[in-house]
TrEMBL record:
Pfam families reported in the protein's UniProt record: TauD
Record protein name field: Arginine beta-hydroxylase, Fe(II)/alpha-ketoglutarate-dependent
Residues that bind Fe cation: H130, E132
Domain of life of the organism encoding this protein: Bacteria
Amino acid sequence: MITELAKSYDTIEDPELIRSARVLAASLPVHLRQFLEEYRLEEPSALGVIAGLEIDESQLGPTPRHWRDSQYDSPALPQEIFFLLCGSLLGDVFGWATQQAGRIMHDVLPIQGHEHDEIGSNSLQHLSWHTEDAFHPCRGDYVALMCLKNPYDAATMVCDAADVDWSALDVDALFEAEFTQLPDNSHLPDYGMDDAGDPAVDLLRARSFELIRSWNDRPVKRPILSGDHESPYMALDPYHMKAEGWPARSLRAYEGLCRQIEANMKDVILRPGDCVFIDNFRAVHGRRSFRPRYDGSDRWLKRLNITRNIRGSRAWRPAADDRIIY
Ligand SMILES: [Fe+2]
């Protein structure tokens, strides 16, 4: 089925393919659909892994040097379609105008010149643990990764909220709207910009970059935790937080949470063919440093953002079926 579908589309970004994804996913094996439905509804773990997808590394060709244009003529299109269909069973996939030129499926690979930057395309520096897009009210419920290559076993780090001892923390303080979260670097024009070739889209993107940039000057106060006090959801990205002006109790509670998260961080090594779904409400994630090679053999992942409530971002999208947040 996946091979046949790959013959019908030129790129994973084809809006018709994205729109059909959930209907097409109904043809996936029932045990696979059941697994994802249980993961979604019961929240048994902050991490769901589907392993065993066939990847022929010789067919993949070299790891691209940049995400730009890698959505065309992709040697991994069948795997990308499988990944898209699985992700669509958890919710609606979406993208950001300010990330990877408004693409839905991102590339995660080391980029020359980013080695020491705080961004997913860095390498020699670890990527600090975070909630994906923690600063944005439309952040996804899941961030999903599909591994195509990981020759040096670079470790993804994950802390599951279930491993945090909430009874030892000042949970009430973390539920208060006393915390400020700044936008992360991945939404800066230096990293996410590319010419769309359409002046109207370029204008919308420029506005979106400007809006997000303005949040650096006027950060909104909000809580770190939400949901159930005994088993909360969390949203934080400490690298992009400034504790200035926080009440002393809030700061103590935040530092306690950070210590617990660091003590409970686990390494997950993605193998080619692994599709990993991280619950962005129940886990924070990061990546350990590694030495890039830039010889075509580097670590190469695909990434999807998935929301369970696409209507929640309607004010940010030009049309009901547009998946890009501006
Ligand atoms: Fe991330």
